[in-house]
Design brief:
The complex is a heterodimer of chains A (291) and B (298). Chain A has 291 residues and is an all-alpha fold. Chain A folds into 2 domains: 2-70, no CATH class; 79-285, MetI-like (MetI-like fold, Orthogonal Bundle), CATH 1.10.3720.10. Chain A has helices at residues 2-39, 44-49, 64-70, 80-111, 117-126, 132-146, 152-175, 181-188, 193-222, 225-231, 240-249, 255-285. Chain A is built from 12 helices and no strands. Chain B folds into 2 domains: 17-59, no CATH class; 71-297, Orthogonal Bundle (MetI-like fold). In chain B, helix 10 runs antiparallel to helix 11 and helix 13 (253-264) runs antiparallel to helix 14 (267-297). Classes of the chains: A mainly alpha (291), B mainly alpha (298). At the A-B interface, helix 1, helix 4, helix 5, helix 6 and helix 7 of A face helix 1, helix 4, helix 5, helix 6 and helix 7 of B.
């Protein structure tokens, strides 16, 4: 009896608590982004005069911040247009190439018995024990020797290596769920290994391939450390992440202009995520029970 | 006869298909790690590496220096505090969030999506917003504090000693609780409702139901996320580097290695430093996995 009344009170308390928790969490995650968007339309002198005024007066709204941050240096801006193009090229190439590397690898790991199969998975997971900085410096030195040190090509190669292990993990978990009996039927019909892979497995795994591609695009677009080491000295090659930090280190660019830059840096990822959220979350957590 | 040829063919095909991925990871990740191991045993600065490559005077000095340097122990301590705090923080908040979002409600889907923003958004953008929001002169947090909450003066969230470490911990918890939320939500969806309903029929209160029915079933996922988060936090660089640059008591291990590489250009000691940390992390993980395996058996 007492347990029952206790239960009743708990149910009521928890119902209220749940609403409080949801409101608090949504506020904590969304408000910083709202602050970012709002400040990107504020004039810097308004911000300095009254930091509490988060929403600008409508008649004081400005889009000058965006014009300034996007326009090229020759046009008196800060060149974010070009930074965004660099980032887009780097992230798109890295993610496309990652898929080219990872699809055959995942196919082999889930379908074929070959020497070293177990070791490959173990090594790919072990690389995450080491901080990226340890990898970044030797790669930078090695690429300098090869003449790739200060180029977008070098950055793309580095990003492929960064995203291959996690992408392989995502894709493998999904491919192992596609029944092998389909492959065997095709092999009996005389199809070659390559035909089976490209005509049967790839179409069946397409949703996961897309989500893996989007995930590696996201990693490459957001990456900062490699870009810092490789491209610091070459402003014309900066990615958006790098450009934003470099300009924020100096004093000459106002914070609200940089807020506009942050919005531009964030928008592609948010768009991508809105389109593909379900795929991405499923891809990330897939097979987490299997480890 | 034919089975052996088939086996052999399968072996060859497997190796062919996997080798591009293996080659790229081996040359860009594994080779640099080996490079680091080798250099950690050498007397090597940038000039030496440029002149002699990987053939410098062999020495154990780098390791001796690492173990006798107070900076190393301080950074290790900071790293451990930081890792434990953000792992626990992001797990607890992620679990609370997953439970709150478990039952359907209006706008659940878009709000769930919004909750993932801190994790997917570029770290350069989120650290920049936090820096501006926490700025003592024009940040909104200090403005609210001094003008509405009656603080005596603005707080130096990112530049003064104990607060800075707390701030980077809060930031990382904020950034990574969606990661825990994602995994724990997926695990919650997979739970069968029958046992819970039976427990409710038997008179279990919601707290008892959570404590004795839901939580035990979630434990494998909690353990897995704790493992992921610990490794991520132990090696975390970008968030701290961008927020404080490692100043004001926030120099964690990977920021220290970065400072050694760029500041003193002493590759040898930086490598030794990184090796010791990787070994510590590896040993910690092995102990953790062993404890978990024993728990799973009993």
């Amino acid at each position: 009896m007492t347990a029952g009344t206790n239960g009743g009170t708990q149910v009521r308390v928890l119902r209220v608590l749940r609403v409080v928790v949801i409101v608090a969490l949504v506020a904590a995650t969304v408000l910083p982004f709202a602050y970012m968007v709002s400040l990107s339309f504020v004039r810097i002198d308004d911000l300095l005069r009254d930091p509490l005024r988060i929403l600008p007066d409508l008649d004081r709204l400005t889009t000058e911040t965006y014009r300034q941050v996007i326009a090229s240096e020759e046009a008196g801006g800060w060149g974010f247009g070009r930074f965004m193009r660099n980032s887009a090229v780097v992230a798109a190439s890295a993610s496309a190439l990652t898929i080219l590397f990872v699809v055959p690898a995942a196919y082999a790991l889930t379908r074929l018995r070959f020497a070293g199969r177990r070791q490959v998975s173990a090594v790919f997971l072990a690389v995450y024990l080491f901080p990226t900085i340890i990898i970044a410096v030797p790669v930078f030195v090695g690429f300098q020797v090869l003449g790739l040190g200060s180029s977008l090509v070098g950055l793309v190669i580095a990003y492929i290596a960064l995203t291959v292990p996690v992408s392989l993990h995502m894709l493998r978990n999904h491919m192992s769920a596609i029944p092998e009996s389909i492959d065997e039927a095709a092999v009996i019909d005389g199809a070659s290994r390559l035909q089976v892979m490209t005509r049967i497995t790839v179409p069946l795994a397409m949703p996961t391939i897309v989500s893996t591609a989007l995930y590696s695009f996201m990693i490459a677009w957001n990456e900062f450390l490699f870009a810092l080491l490789f491209l610091s000295a070459h402003q014309e090659l900066w990615t958006v992440s790098l450009g934003l930090t470099r300009l924020a280190d100096g004093q000459e660019v106002s914070k609200t202009v940089l807020m506009a830059g942050s919005v531009l840096l964030t928008i592609p990822i948010v768009l991508l995520f809105t389109v593909a959220e379900r795929w991405l979350t499923e891809g990330l957590t897939a097979g987490s029970d299997k480890g | 006869m034919t089975t052996t040829t088939l086996r052999r063919r399968e072996n060859r095909e497997g190796i062919t298909l996997i080798s591009p991925a293996v080659i790229v990871v081996a040359s860009i990740i594994v080779l640099p790690i080996i490079w680091t191991v080798v250099l950690s045993f050498q007397e090597a600065r940038y000039v030496d590496v440029a002149r002699n490559g990987l053939f410098n005077t062999a020495t154990l000095d780098n390791y001796i220096d690492t173990f006798t340097s107070p900076g190393f122990w301080r950074a290790l301590q900071t790293t451990v505090v930081y890792s434990v705090a953000t792992t626990v923080g992001s797990l607890v908040i992620g679990l609370v969030a997953a439970l709150a979002f478990r039952e359907r409600f209006r706008f659940r889907a878009p709000l769930r999506g919004a909750m993932l923003l801190p994790y997917v958004a570029p770290v350069v953008a989120t650290t920049f917003v936090w820096q501006v929001a926490l700025n003592p002169q024009f940040g909104v947090v200090n403005a609210v504090g001094t003008e509405l909450l009656g603080w005596d003066r603005p707080i130096n969230f990112l530049t003064a000693a104990p607060t800075a470490l707390m701030t980077v911990i809060v930031f990382d918890t904020w950034r990574h609780f969606p990661f825990a939320f994602l995994f724990l939500s997926a695990a919650l969806t997979g739970l069968s409702r029958d046992i819970e309903e039976a427990a409710v029929v038997d008179g279990a209160s919601p707290v008892q139901k959570f404590r004795y029915v839901v939580l035990p079933q979630l434990m494998p996922t909690v353990a897995l996320v704790a493992l992921f988060r610990t490794v991520m936090a132990f090696n975390e660089f970008e968030g701290i580097f961008l927020l404080t640059g490692g100043a004001a008591g926030t120099q964690v291990a990977s920021v220290r290695v970065y400072d050694q590489l760029t500041g003193s250009s002493d590759i040898g000691s930086a490598s030794a430093n990184a090796m010791v940390l990787a070994v510590i992390l590896g040993i910690g993980l092995m102990l953790y996995l062993r404890v978990m395996a024993r728990r799973a058996e009993s």
